[in-house]
């Protein structure tokens, strides 16, 4: 009679043997592998009878499991290395060219500083993130929170000799910092717009040396509509004109409301669709006929005026030249002189 320990060992050995059987997969034709893309191509024909007799989901799952097991077994034949307490395999170069879903991204256009640095031969030097702080006597970050040489924590600022003694130097420093941040942000947006071949996003009035009248009007309009009421209660300046090319707010009909107006509108559309004759707008037609008549009369007046001016020139100024009676045999008699009739 076997001991309980021997039974346990036999059961464990049987389970391990079953696990080893699951690792080995037999195929009539060898599976083609492309380990660079982690791709396995099974050329074996699928049994149609087995697919119809068995459960379809279980059959496809078992087929996918066998091919995946073959791919993993093939991966373990590759050279491995230990990286950060993990064993990784070195994949070879892919052999199958797979199509891309999207086109290859275009290279980013260089910024103005990158172009200038390339022209002058300036190379980027990597700086450490830490700097020595003489005040606190420790290493701190160069930028950000608790940075080294942070002058915003000073409780006293020396007033320059050329500055106004009554001017707040703390407020002046904060204002200068805000201006630098805004300038950097504007330059960043300009670089993005230039790389995308777009205009700089409109944010009111961009800083220019001599802004035009249109830019000033646009900045004033943006400032007016930036209130909580979107400029509804803002007073207008005397002789102020509405800005152009600022867009119009679209108006939509209510979903639930005046059903009679909607009914009449739909009936008008149906009448136009059913009628074979075009709709004649009498007012528009009369106005067009009047404009054509006025244009014809104006053309006749211009033509008549040209003829009248030409006649005066022929009878007046052109009489001084060589005309009839002023040739070599005229004997000094002009147009108005007496002629002898035979």
From TrEMBL:
Gene: rrs1.L
A cellular component term, taken from the record's GO annotations: preribosome, large subunit precursor
Family: Belongs to the RRS1 family.
Described purpose of this protein according to its UniProt entry: Involved in ribosomal large subunit assembly.
Organism: Xenopus laevis
Disordered as annotated region, ranges: 234-257, 281-342
UniProt protein name: Ribosome biogenesis regulatory protein
Keywords recorded for this protein, A-Z: Nucleus, Ribosome biogenesis
Ranges of biased composition (kind: Basic and acidic residues): 234-245
Subcellular location: Nucleus
Gene Ontology BP terms: endonucleolytic cleavage in ITS1 to separate SSU-rRNA from 5.8S rRNA and LSU-rRNA from tricistronic rRNA transcript (SSU-rRNA, 5.8S rRNA, LSU-rRNA); ribosomal large subunit biogenesis
Superkingdom of origin: Eukaryota
Comp. bias intervals (Basic residues): 300-342
InterPro entries linked to this entry: Ribosom_reg
């Amino acid at each position: 009679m076997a001991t309980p320990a021997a039974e346990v060992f036999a059961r464990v050995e049987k389970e391990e043997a079953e696990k080893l059987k699951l690792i080995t997969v037999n195929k009539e034709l060898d599976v083609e592998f492309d380990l660079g893309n982690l791709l396995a191509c099974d050329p074996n024909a699928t049994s149609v009878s087995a697919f119809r007799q068995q459960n379809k989901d279980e059959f496809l799952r078992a087929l996918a499991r066998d091919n995946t097991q073959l791919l993993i077994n093939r991966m373990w034949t590759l050279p491995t290395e230990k990286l950060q307490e993990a064993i990784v395999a070195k994949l070879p170069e892919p052999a199958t060219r797979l199509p891309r879903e999207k086109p290859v991204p275009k290279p980013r256009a260089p910024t103005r500083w990158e172009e200038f640095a390339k022209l002058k031969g300036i190379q980027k030097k990597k700086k450490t993130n830490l700097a020595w702080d003489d005040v606190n006597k420790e290493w701190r970050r160069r930028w950000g929170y608790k940075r080294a040489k942070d002058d915003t924590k000073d409780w006293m600022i020396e007033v320059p000799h050329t500055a106004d003694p009554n001017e707040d130097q703390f407020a002046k420093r904060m204002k200068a910092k805000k201006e630098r941040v805004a300038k950097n942000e504007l330059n960043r947006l300009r670089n993005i717009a230039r790389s995308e071949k777009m205009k700089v996003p409109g944010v009111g009035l961009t800083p220019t040396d001599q802004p035009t009248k249109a830019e000033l009007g646009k900045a004033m309009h943006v400032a007016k509509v930036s209130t909580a009421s979107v400029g509804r209660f803002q007073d207008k300046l005397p002789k102020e004109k509405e800005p152009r090319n600022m867009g119009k707010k679209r108006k939509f009909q209510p979903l639930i409301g005046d059903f009679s107006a909607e009914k009449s509108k739909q009936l008008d559309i149906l009448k136009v669709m059913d009628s074979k004759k075009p709709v004649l707008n009498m007012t528009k037609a009369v106005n067009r006929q009047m404009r054509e008549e006025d244009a014809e009369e104006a053309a006749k007046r211009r033509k008549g005026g040209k003829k009248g001016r030409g006649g005066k020139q022929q009878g007046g100024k052109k009489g001084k030249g060589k005309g009839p009676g002023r040739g070599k045999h005229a004997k000094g008699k002009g147009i108005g002189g007496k002629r002898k009739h035979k």
